[in-house]
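Let's practice the habit of predicting before peeking. Look at the sequence and jot down your guess about where helices and strands might fall. Then scroll down.
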Amino acid sequence: MAHPVPPYGNTIQEAIAQGDLARMKQVAADAEQHLQQAGDVQSALEYLKIEIAKLEHKSENRRF
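Done guessing? Here is the structure:
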């Protein structure tokens, strides 16, 4: 059973380059579904970076 490929930029670019309308529509549908399931990844990533910075700062302060 084939697993769906996450719709990263390469997958989207390849679909466009192939010029296969059916493939392009499938990749678009997969990307839409992925976005619905993933939620706001950009905001989550920013929050993650803030938490990483906090922990790194704490870790640096413990060394001294």
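How did you do? The two ends are 54 Å apart (CA to CA).
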